[in-house]
UniProtKB/TrEMBL annotation:
It comes from Herbiconiux sp. A18JL235. One of its GO terms (molecular function) is aldehyde-lyase activity. Gene3D superfamilies: Phosphoenolpyruvate-binding domains. Keywords: Lyase, Metal-binding. One of its GO terms (cellular component) is cytoplasm. InterPro entries: Aldolase/citrate-lyase_domain, HpcH-HpaI_aldolase, Pyrv/PenolPyrv_kinase-like_dom, Pyrv_kinase-like_dom_sf. It holds the Pfam family HpcH_HpaI. Residues 25-212 form the HpcH/HpaI aldolase/citrate lyase domain. This is HpcH/HpaI aldolase/citrate lyase family protein. Belongs to the HpcH/HpaI aldolase family. PANTHER family: 2-KETO-3-DEOXY-L-RHAMNONATE ALDOLASE, PHOSPHOENOLPYRUVATE CARBOXYLASE FAMILY PROTEIN.
Amino acid sequence: MIGSGRRTSLFRTALARPSGPPLGTWSKIPAQETIELLALAGFDFVVIDLEHSAMSAESASRQIGVALLAGMSPIVRVPSLAGGLVQRMLDAGAEGIMLPHVDSAEEARAAAAAVRFPPAGTRGVGSTSRAGAWGAVPREEYLRFGDEVVLIAQIESAAAARAAGEIAAVAGVDALLVGAADLSVSEGLPESDPHVVQLIAGAVEASHARGVPVGNAGGATTDAVRASIDAGFDFTMLSNDASLLGGAATAAVRAARSVTATIQENA
């Protein structure tokens, strides 16, 4: 939560816990209540998805505020570095930026520059935004927390997987997230194919060799989480808000239909 005192990254705190990998999910529904429900469920972080949803910057800003007040780390996936969206989401209080399709160290350096204040980067000062508690936080503290903001580079191609070590070595890159779906599609192979599995394993190993954590996006099941841990991932994402809602709704209707079907059979 942003206040007038020293702020600590909720995402980094969750990563440092010895009790297991931080759990997150995607937010695709532009509603504040979704974020509140996810926080109440116990998620450590949420990635507000501006790449694969109709979410607006305003909706994302409101979700960031709710997440911070609820004690859940808000990270925003931007579609690209263009348009000043990174700056706006960080001013809105996002604890991190996730950038898709980072294929090289050069692209990672451009992302890091957009996220960091000078001299490390080019992020502009906007301390009268939520990130600076609307001006209540001293300028020094606002700038200091800029170093705690996380940059997560997505590895979504064979080229990116092979360059994972170089990407992880870029100053300002705090974590990688392997996008197995895009990676497998780019290779024309299923995610379970040995070639794809090997590319992912190589990316995880290379990132860990640089001391950089790696995450993934998987299903909301115990088997999926166990597989993520076994594969060496340091944090994992469980489905997304829309799919979780749809799955719960489908299960509820299916259960109800089974009762009515039994009544009809016994009639």
